[in-house]
Amino acid sequence: MSNELVWDRPEPPSKPSPTPLSRELIVTAAIRLADGGGLDEVSLRKVAAALNAGPMRLYGYIETKDELLDLMVDEVYGEIALPEPGTEWRSALTQIAHGIRAAAKRHPWLVDLLGGRPHRGPNSLAHIEASLGTLDGKPEFPTIDHVLGAVGAVMAFVHGAVRNEIAEARAEQSSGMTEEQWQAASGPYMQRMLATGKFPTLAKVMYDAEHTNAASYFDTGLSYVLDGIATRHTPGSTPGGSASAPSAPSAAPAGR
Amino acid sequence: MSNELVWDRPEPPSKPSPTPLSRELIVTAAIRLADGGGLDEVSLRKVAAALNAGPMRLYGYIETKDELLDLMVDEVYGEIALPEPGTEWRSALTQIAHGIRAAAKRHPWLVDLLGGRPHRGPNSLAHIEASLGTLDGKPEFPTIDHVLGAVGAVMAFVHGAVRNEIAEARAEQSSGMTEEQWQAASGPYMQRMLATGKFPTLAKVMYDAEHTNAASYFDTGLSYVLDGIATRHTPGSTPGGSASAPSAPSAAPAGR
DNA sequence: GTATCGCTCAATACACTGTATCGCGACGAG
DNA sequence: CTCGTCGCGATACAGTGTATTGAGCGATAC
Questions:
Q1: Do residues B57 and B21 lie in contact, with contact meaning Cβ atoms separated by under 8 Å?
Q2: How far apart are CA A5 and CA A11, in angstroms?
Q3: Which chain B residue shows the shortest CA-CA distance from A113?
Q4: Taking 90 as the threshold, does the pLDDT of residue A133 lie above it?
Q5: Which residues contact B70 (CB under 8 A, 6 or more apart)?
Q6: Where is this region: Disordered (chains A, B) (predicted)?
Q7: What DSSP letter does each residue of chain A carry, written as one string?
Q8: Tens digit of pLDDT for each residue in A70-107?
Q9: What is the spatial distance between Cα A125 and Cα A72, in angstroms, rounded to a whole number?
Q10: How far apart are CA A55 and CA A48, in angstroms?
Q11: How far apart, in whole angstroms, are the C-alpha atoms of residue A168 and residue A104?
């Protein structure tokens, strides 16, 4: 059939490298790439290349790129240690919160994925289970909805706080260095804004704030949330707030 | 010079449509697109097309696509009403929180951008200023760092909660409808996981939870945070938590 | 009035993305 | 030995953000 001589065709690379693949290999490769250069570095081509494979090869293990991202998230959740089953709820939740923050520091890209879509991987589920388990059964949390509300609040705070923290860190290191330099770097615009006098408190923040390290802001915020939960769910004490928030979730009429 | 006859060249579209452009026009067009089909619909080509312009035209008003996204975020911040200057801090912060949540409902794409990078647009700054202003000067918050810690915690919660809520809503409506259906839809895998018995609390959530509407989860969480702040910063009362979180941010040794 | 400069915008171009399709090549069954 | 099947690689396509180029026009200088 072929009129061309064998010599014309380049020798097929014998067995190019039928590297055996697996989801595990793929996601660890992807994670390594992401750790190095952010999520932009995670393209199917690059991940495949890192495994000496063609891009299409991955589709045997994955149906879409989003699935790969989901796997990455779940893998990182697997790195986070769960608290011992019997741990007191406050310290258990604190431990989980710190675990997530630490993981996000190791894998900054995590925050871009963190609540972007529900996490249903086995490790994620284990985490949710552990979090809920810290409160479930306690008499102060009579229904599962109370548990859900409390844990949800903690997780919402953690996600938001970590995301903000990493975002700020990224912005910092991408356009200057310390915040003192930043204050001069992003200055022209910022100086002008502050000079209008319309942002007095903000100005105080920029000039007077100690810029306490981020970890202690995180801890403070976390303790606010935990305190709030504890106060609401300690028999016989309702805090002095004037707001009319209900003391526990209940089917409210306001629809969504 | 030209050997070709006039007839060869198509008549230049007279004045194709030198539509006057402006940042305002561009971002509102982009927002309209995003509202309709999510952030994927916001490409420079599509935005430009919506304005009868070539893609490159936009680069006269914008230096990068990220800048456009920043402008969009700031525009939405502009939609959110600020509380009256004198408002009591709890209700002021509550109002801001609800404002952000409402905005995210109107513009679901907002959550994909919300803490992804620091927001420094004028409207964002006004919001930050207003939030900080609710606490600044109060004797219970002696330093600006206390104010920052409290407001930061509230904002972290709001961002995280809204993001989670929208993400869940998206997942729901993308693969089924109500959560009852979902429980059967995403079932195969979920059922199997729950059947392992390793997630007892999670199972309770899936089967027993009332699935109180999202708004009241949000309110509950928010009141936890506000309660926590109020309790810490009400003279002479420290809640019964056993955790060792400091009562106020301070330069801690733990570095980042 | 004419020539030249400069500026604005559109077209083209490039490198890259995620993914559908196709066809070759090896392997197992008969 | 032959044939079907299947896994995998190459190719293809539509789309992305952005750099570069070039054409057209208005205003300015003589």
A1: yes
A2: 12
A3: B112
A4: yes
A5: B117, B119, B120, B121
A6: 1-21, 233-256
A7: ---S-GGGSPPP-SS-------HHHHHHHHHHHHHHH-GGG--HHHHHHHTT--GGGGGGT-SSHHHHHHHHHHHHHHHSPPPPTT--HHHHHHHHHHHHHHHHHH-TTHHHHTTTS---SHHHHHHHHHHHHHHTT-TTS-SHHHHHHHHHHHHHHHHHHHHHHHHHHHHHHHH-SSHHHHHHHSHHHHHHHHHTTS-HHHHHHHHH-----HHHHHHHHHHHHHHHHHHHTSTT------S---SS----S---
A8: 999 999 999 999 999 889 999 999 999 999 999 999 99
A9: 14
A10: 5
A11: 13
Nucleotides of C under 7 A from a protein CB: 8-12, 16-21, 25-26
Contact B155 A160 (CB under 8 A): yes
Per-residue pLDDT tens for A9-50? 555 554 555 677 889 999 999 999 999 999 999 999 999 999
CA dist A14 to A10, B19, B91, Å? 11, 60, 72
E strand or H helix at B145: helix B144-175
Given a contact cutoff of 8 angstroms between Cβ atoms, the answer to whether B50 and B29 are in contact is yes
A157 with B190: Cβ contact below 8 A: no
| A219 contacts in chain B (CB < 8 Å) | 245-246, 252
Q: Which nucleotides of D are covered by protein (CB under 7 A)?
A: 7-11, 15-20, 24-25
In total, the C-beta contacts within 8 angstroms joining chain A to chain B are 300
Residues in chain B, how many?
Answer: 256
Shortest CA distance to A66 belongs to which of A109, A117, A127, A22? A117
More confident residue, B8 or B29: B29
